[in-house]
Amino acid sequence: MAEISTVARPYAEALFAAVKADAAATKACVEELRVLTELMSMEDVRIALSDPRLEDDQRIEILNALLQNQQLSSQMHNFVRLLVENDRLLLLPVITEQFESLKDAAEGVAQAQITSAFPLDDNQVADLVQMLEPKFNIKLKPHVTVDPSLIGGIRVIVGDHVLDTSVQAQLNRMRDALVA
Questions:
Q1: d(Cα 156, Cα 142) in Å, to the nearest integer?
Q2: DSSP designation for 54
Q3: How remote is the C-alpha of 151 from its chain's centroid?
Q4: Residue 151 is part of which domain span?
Q5: Which listed site, 75, 141, 171, 174, has its alpha carbon 20 to 30 Å from 48?
Q6: Residues 24, 85: one domain?
Q7: Residues in Cβ contact with 107 at an 8 Å cutoff, skipping those fewer than 6 apart
Q8: Do residues 26 and 90 share a domain?
Q9: Where does the signal peptide begin and end (predicted)?
């Protein structure tokens, strides 16, 4: 069976190719995808929309009813119809993730998952990002979380790269060196 990300990739790429020329359309598309992804993350919605007794039009009607006041652009409506017809609606979270990655790559930006042992204020985050951007050679969008189990220091994840200067990581390295 094909990997989920492999199946979702062509949909994300096609949608991105359709909107990438217009920055406003790209931003609107990201917002609409996030709303749809949030909706599809609900267990009841996934179960209801994957009911084999429903026709494609019924699935779309249910989805539109669940969206209530939020209107989808005609482009997104067509995209959702395509997903429903190809039985790929449950892939929306993966498609959204891949679409955002394509958008970030086109903008020359990468998401930086910063985990700190202690809360960081905005100035500290800005200083950290300023120090990290030359290291990763790309503009970073920080997403900061706090994890007291790190004991001290930070862990930064940018794509496949991990920079872990936490006390926990240092203790683990010391333990591994002593055991070896």
A1: 9
A2: S
A3: 27
A4: 108-179
A5: 75
A6: yes
A7: 139
A8: yes
A9: none
CA separation for the pair 97, 33 (Å, rounded): 9
Same domain, 92 and 123: no
* Sign, Cα dihedral of 89, 90, 93, 99: negative
CATH number assigned to the domain comprising residue 86: 1.10.520.20
**Chain segment 68-127, per-residue pLDDT in tens:** 877 888 899 999 999 999 999 999 999 999 999 999 999 999 999 999 999 999 999 999
Report the Cα 20 to chain-centroid distance in Å: 18
Q: What is the pLDDT of residues 123-144, one digit of tens each?
A: 999 999 999 999 989 999 999 9
Following CA atoms 48, 51, 57, 63 in sequence, which dihedral angle do they give, to the nearest 10 degrees?
20
Total domains in the fold of the chain: 2
Average pLDDT estimate for 55-70 = 88
Q: Looking at the structure, do residues 94 and 119 belong to the same domain, yes or no?
A: no
Q: DSSP for 63-125? A: HHHHHTT-PPPHHHHHHHHHHHHTT-GGGHHHHHHHHHHHHHHHHTEEEEEEEESS---HHHH
